[in-house]
Write a structure and sequence with these properties.
The complex is a heterodimer of chains A (about 220) and B (about 130). Chain A has about 220 residues and is mainly alpha-helical. Helix content of chain A is about 80%, strand content about 0%. Chain A contains 10 helices and no strands. Chain A has helices spanning about 5-20, 25-45, 50-65, 70-85, 90-110, 120-130, 135-150, 155-170, 180-210, 215-225. In chain A, helix 2 packs antiparallel against helix 3 (about 50-65), helix 3 runs antiparallel to helix 4 and helix 3 (about 50-65) packs parallel to helix 5 (about 90-110). Chain B contains 3 helices and 5 strands, in the order ααβββαββ. Chain B starts with 12 loop residues before the first helix and ends with a strand. A 5-stranded mixed β-sheet of chain B has the order 1-2-3-4-5, sandwiched between helices. The longest helix of chain B has 21 residues, at about 20-40. In chain B, strand 3, helix 3 and strand 4 (about 105-115) form a beta-alpha-beta unit. With about 130 residues, chain B is of the alpha+beta class. Classes of the chains: A mainly alpha (about 220), B alpha+beta (about 130).
Chain lengths: ~220, ~130
């Protein structure tokens, strides 16, 4: 009735509801993202003088974004809606409410720096994927131990490698389907890279020593001894 | 107050099983009765839905509406086995909620009491 885009948004949202009932939350979130984008587009097509229609569609799109796997886009959309203006008071109030609910996602991402603790990162990854943090913590510990034993990585280096991989996993969470599989592969890849760099650095040191004067080499070896 | 009659085919065993959840059953049935009631009493029809935090609202408007400018948000509540006092309490609570929000939203509140076979409709015009 309003537009084909709105009709398509409702159809996509219906499909998302079916996926929720089938207990497929990841697929449902993706479908909600499609519905939200369509509702957002429908809002853009409504003339500015139709404040009530625009208000209803803006609020509907914002809640669909909230349910989707794209809260960042939702936050930006809410800002767009509010800045564009011409909305009813009730709609503005509700959009601010959605923005408040989206804020923790955004804040959490911004707060997670490369120096974040293991606990903070594990909490974020577990929440981001909706998986059990205890299980993820055991997975982290087991992977770390394996890296130490199989790749002879120093304990602190293994911890640092894993923290950076898990942080990256959190940042890319919307594009990762199987977090455990991704984490395992990327952890080994990152650890191998780190080990290769360390070996190269050690080789360079040895070559430098070998090229230096005999006395210097002797001194170095003497220091080592 | 007006009196209306609704009729429907008897539910099969399969339908009973499919709607075994009390809340889902009451909610879905209330939606059906409420939409039919506002259509019969206020001459407004479901024209769209709009998503909110939990679920979606029905939007009702005149049959020839081309947008949502004059649409009402339909707030529906179903009471399964409660008596007339329960329905009245639900209506009072709903009205108190609507009055508490000095809003520019036009809302129709509709409470469906199945045991009492009563439907209460209240409208709030936006500012």
């Amino acid at each position: 009735m309003i537009s084909q885009l709105h009709e398509r948004a409702l159809t996509a949202a219906d499909r998302a509801e079916v996926l929720i009932r089938r207990e497929e939350p990841a697929a449902a979130r993706r479908m909600y993202a499609i519905a939200a984008a369509l509702e957002h587009a429908a809002w853009s097509d409504v003339p500015a003088e139709k404040a009530r229609t625009r208000s209803i569609l803006a609020v509907s799109a914002a809640w669909l974004y909230y349910r989707s796997d794209n809260p960042d886009r939702g936050r930006q959309a809410v800002i767009d809606f509010l800045l564009t203006g011409g909305l009813q008071r009730a709609a503005r109030r509700e959009l601010r409410q959605v923005a408040q609910l989206l804020l923790p996602y955004i804040r959490r991402e911004a707060d997670l720096s490369p120096t974040a603790s293991r606990v903070e990162i594990l909490d974020a990854v577990a929440e981001g994927f909706g998986i059990d943090v205890q299980k993820l913590s055991r997975f982290f510990a087991a992977t770390k131990r394996t890296l130490e034993l199989r790749l002879s990585l120093n304990r602190l280096v293994a911890e640092e490698v894993l923290r950076s991989v898990y942080l990256e996993c959190f940042r890319r969470r919307r594009a990762i389907v199987n977090p455990y599989g991704w984490l395992l592969i990327e952890s080994f890849r990152a650890a191998e890279l780190r080990r290769t760099r360390e070996l190269a650095s050690t080789t360079n040191d040895i070559e430098r020593l070998a090229e230096s004067d005999d006395d210097d080499l002797a001194d170095s070896l003497g220091e080592e001894g | 107050m007006s009196e209306r009659t609704a009729s429907w085919p008897e539910a099969s065993q399969r339908q009973f099983s499919a709607w075994a959840n009390d809340n889902d059953r009451t909610e879905a049935a209330a939606y059906g009765v409420a939409l039919a009631s506002v259509e019969a009493e206020l001459n407004v029809f479901a024209v769209s839905r709009a998503y909110r935090r939990s679920g979606a609202d029905y939007l009702v408007a005149a049959k020839d509406a081309v947008d949502l400018e004059n649409a009402y948000r339909l707030e529906i509540s179903g009471v399964d086995s409660g008596d007339s006092a329960t329905v009245a309490r639900r209506v009072r609570r709903k009205l108190a909620q609507l009055r508490a929000v000095k809003d520019d939203d036009s809302i129709i509140a509709c409470v469906v009491g199945f045991k009492e076979r009563a439907v209460v409709i209240q409208t709030q015009q936006g500012e």
